Amino acid sequence: MTRTLALVFLSIVAAIPLLAQSVGGKETGLAAVYTDLLDGHVTASGQRYDKTQLTAAHKTLPYGTKVKVTNLKNNRSVVLTINDRGPVQAGRILDVSAAAADRLGFSSKVMREVTLEIVEVGSGKTTKQPPR
User: Fold this and answer.
1) Domain boundaries, the chain
2) Distance CA 109, CA 106 (A)
3) Measured between alpha carbons, how far is 107 from 8 in angstroms, rounded to an integer?
4) 73 touches 97 (CB < 8 A)
5) Long-range CB contacts for residues 51-54, cutoff 8 Å, separation at least 24
6) pLDDT tens digits, residue range 77-89?
7) How many whole angstroms separate alpha carbon 76 and alpha carbon 58?
């Protein structure tokens, strides 16, 4: 009986990350803006970072995933596409493009607490870009 309960518990715990990555899954934490120095560089997905596009980096969500991001300070929202990995700094859940930050109402000099909600799970496929 104890072993069965332990297996059920472990199964539930193992499924939590999968549930968090399904449509409607939510996460709250800090978001920051990519530096302009990265504009034109290739992202982890193979796409070029374009500061004018509505994109973001997340540590685990599949590439192509659409997330609704809401700035908790002013309640502004925007739908972004995950096309990179990151952020690498502890405590942050997203790095967003300059265009996304503008729509969300914060500058490149601050971090904001945001909530992200998965709207559509992406394929995770990468893209090859020709050299620049």
Assistant:
1) 2-120
2) 8
3) 46
4) no
5) 51/97, 51/98, 51/99, 52/97, 52/98, 52/99, 53/81, 53/97, 53/99, 54/78, 54/79, 54/80, 54/81, 54/97, 54/99, 54/100, 54/103
6) 999 999 999 998 8
7) 20
- What is the number of other CB atoms lying within 10 angstroms of the CB of residue 64? 18
Contact at 8 Å (CB) between 114 and 33? no
Instruction: Note the pLDDT tens digit of each residue in 92-129.
Output: 999 999 999 999 998 777 889 999 999 998 888 777 65
**What gap in Å lies between CA 58 and CA 68, rounded to an integer?**
13
Contact call for residues 65 and 25 (beta carbons, < 8 A)? no
Whose CA is closest to 63, among 36, 48, 83, 39?
83
Give residue 23's pLDDT band: very low, low, confident or very high (50, 70, 90). Answer: confident
**Lowest mean pLDDT segment, chosen from 17-26, 54-63, 118-127:** 17-26
How far apart, in whole angstroms, are the C-alpha atoms of residue 44 and residue 14? 26
CATH no. of 2-120: 2.40.40.10
